[in-house]
């Protein structure tokens, strides 16, 4: 019998199925390491196909990281990820990358100067179809690689219960890959829905491009700042990271109101929602 809440004494087959199912739940439930970023890039693509690709690229980077983490866990080398401060450091790093990406998206078409090799790697307006070009999805892949180092109930089960039970080092990475595939499937679906929603609005192509850039840029920039503040405060006041209110829901990511869930609501519902409302008002007012 598969117990996703507290898996124990797993056979090889059950362990691998459990890893994949946990990935599916991780991808569909509100998670601070996935939803804010997928939402931002999916809206920035302003189409169902683009939203699906946003979820794919983000989850591809995430899957690669989980495969590495799973292999390290097989050799008992992932213990450092279980320390509480690691999650807070990841918040800060993810937040900084989000803020930089948001700034880049909002400033596309203006004169910006980054580190030379970074400037060459990022597609500029003159090479990417101008200001109407969708948000570059390569950034989502980078986000996935970084966000994957965050820990939580899912990562704890994967690293401490499933990965160590693999019969050989050649299979140590497999639970991480299957977990990532489960997440990828759901994130592609969610990303497609976000993109489809904007695509279906009775707005001109230019208006959709403006909304996509405005909402994704603001969500990444201000959401990233919230991540940095949350991570910094949790490092200073460790009890903040441990704070939670039990909801009674027997599903990971929904079982408690905690810092992670607050971040999801604040970034997606707060920053993203307000940005979407303002963008719609601006498009309507300007007749774009």
Automatic annotation (TrEMBL):
Record key words, sorted: Membrane, Transmembrane, Transmembrane helix
Origin: domain of life: Bacteria
Membrane-traversing stretches: 12-29, 50-68, 88-106, 139-162, 168-198, 219-237, 257-277
Signal peptide (from-to): none
Protein name: Urease accessory protein UreH-like transmembrane domain-containing protein
Gene source species: Alicyclobacillus hesperidum
């Amino acid at each position: 019998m598969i117990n996703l809440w507290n898996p124990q004494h797993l056979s090889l087959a059950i362990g691998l199925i459990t890893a994949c199912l946990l990935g599916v739940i991780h991808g569909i439930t509100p998670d601070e390491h996935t939803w804010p970023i997928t939402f931002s890039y999916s809206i920035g693509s302003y189409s169902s196909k683009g939203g699906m690709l946003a979820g794919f690229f983000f989850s591809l980077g995430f899957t690669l990281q989980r495969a590495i983490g799973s292999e390290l866990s097989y050799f008992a080398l992932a213990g450092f990820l279980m320390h509480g401060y690691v999650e807070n450091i990841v918040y800060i790093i993810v937040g900084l990358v989000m803020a930089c990406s948001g700034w880049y998206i909002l400033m596309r078409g203006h004169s910006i100067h980054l580190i030379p090799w970074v400037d060459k790697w990022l597609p500029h307006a003159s090479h990417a179809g101008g200001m109407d070009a969708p948000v570059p999805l390569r950034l989502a892949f980078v986000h996935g690689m970084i966000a994957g180092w965050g820990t939580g109930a899912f990562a704890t089960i994967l690293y401490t219960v499933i990965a160590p039970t693999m019969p050989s080092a050649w299979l140590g990475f497999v639970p991480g890959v299957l977990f990532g595939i489960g997440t990828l499937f759901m994130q592609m679906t969610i990303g497609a829905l976000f993109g489809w929603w904007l695509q279906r609005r009775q707005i001109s192509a230019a208006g959709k491009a403006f909304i996509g850039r405005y909402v994704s840029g603001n969500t990444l920039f201000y959401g990233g700042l919230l991540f940095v503040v949350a991570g910094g405060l949790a490092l200073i006041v460790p009890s903040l990271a441990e704070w939670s209110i039990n909801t009674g829901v027997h599903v990971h990511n929904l079982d408690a109101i905690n810092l992670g869930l607050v971040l999801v609501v604040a970034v997606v519902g707060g920053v993203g929602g307000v940005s979407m409302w303002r963008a719609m008002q601006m498009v309507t007012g300007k007749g774009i």
